[in-house]
Amino acid sequence: MLYAFGSNGSGQLGLGHCDDVSTPSKVSLPASAVSQTPIKITAGGNHTLLLVSTGEVYACGQNVDGRCATTSKGDLHKKFQRCEIQLPGNSTVTKFRFCAATWESSTFVDEEGRVFTTGTGSRGQLGRGQHITSSTVPKVIPDFPPPGTYITDLAASMGHTVAVLSDGSAYGWGTGRKGQLGMPSVDCWIPRRIDGIPFHAMQAACGKDFTFIAGDSKKAQHLVLGSDKWHVRSAAPRDISGWKGIAASWGSIYVVLDSGRLLAWGRGDHRQIPSGDHVLADKVAAGSEHVVVLHEATGICRAYGWGEHGNCGELEGSDDTSNNGNFVSVDTKILGIGAGCATSWIFT
């Protein structure tokens, strides 16, 4: 079962309406997705992508420019619909390994390793060449990834996307003026290798103006590229050995360790940096200016940060949570979590 709460002005929660909700509400999924396990939620400004265990992706929310990659061409999808990519010769792609979303675009990696983009991006977010700023249907990024490699991780934030490859390199495209895609600090209209990573990259997380790259969990290898606003680079801990999950909001970075400890640094003015001995985490999901934390052994799920749209649950007298976060629950055991732009998700 999938539950959603938060901002919903474009139907991006998939609840069948466009009203914000502050309590976790059951999402009515297509019949083909009901029995499947959610693997990942990724969200743009007003649309959501859901990857399930069969490899299918479902989308809802704003679709005026085709960013949801569905066969239905309505401007708004108030319920999740399956993503399909039409290829020449009447063949169709419906199974994917990865998906990611910038503010107005979506990226899909299919089972053959091909990368498709769709939607809108004025600074290279589509990754298909200079001045290609819109695409109402998904089209492939040519000649990527390089021969002999394949994508092992995919991440995106408001304006840029980063792909980690099997050879330990990382490539990025989109907004790059703050150095989040490496040097030179320019927008990248096609995937460009991010030079200067002194280790085999394993996973990436993207903030608004930065990129966080993690290497071998046993060797504490990590790197922050881009803007140091909110001290996301200068305040980074030296040791993240034993990491098992990473995430980034627009201005903060979160690392879950095997020990259950949560490392967090960066922007904290909305109390989106969890603190205190009570913070135990097995999973973390970062939205735009909030974070959802799950401790599996106790089943405790808390949201921290800015919750004006209900994405941190019911709050009293403030748009921000307390320092201890806000307890969020449903009537069954929580197995997974997700977060987007003022949206939150629970999997059971």
Key traits:
348 residues; mainly beta; 4-stranded antiparallel beta sheet; 1 helix; globular
Overview of the structural elements:
The protein has 348 residues and is an all-beta fold. 1% of the residues lie in helices and 42% in strands. The chain is built from one helix and 28 strands. It has one helix spanning 31-34, and strands spanning 2-6, 21-26, 38-43, 47-52, 57-62, 76-82, 85-86, 92-93, 96-101, 105-110, 115-120, 134-140, 151-156, 160-165, 170-174, 188-193, 203-206, 210-214, 222-226, 243-248, 252-257, 262-266, 283-286, 290-295, 300-305, 326-328, 336-339, 343-347. The strands form eight sheets. The chain has a four-stranded antiparallel beta sheet, with no helix packed on it. A hairpin with a 3-residue loop joins β27 and β28. The protein is globular and about 55 Å long. It starts with a strand and ends with a strand.
What is the fold's blueprint, element by element?
Blueprint: E1 2-6, E2 21-26, H1 31-34, E3 38-43, E4 47-52, E5 57-62, E6 76-82, E7 85-86, E8 92-93, E9 96-101, E10 105-110, E11 115-120, E12 134-140, E13 151-156, E14 160-165, E15 170-174, E16 188-193, E17 203-206, E18 210-214, E19 222-226, E20 243-248, E21 252-257, E22 262-266, E23 283-286, E24 290-295, E25 300-305, E26 326-328, E27 336-339, E28 343-347
Antiparallel strand pairs: 1-2, 1-28, 3-4, 4-5, 5-6, 7-8, 9-10, 10-11, 11-12, 13-14, 14-15, 15-16, 17-18, 18-19, 20-21, 21-22, 23-24, 24-25, 25-26, 27-28
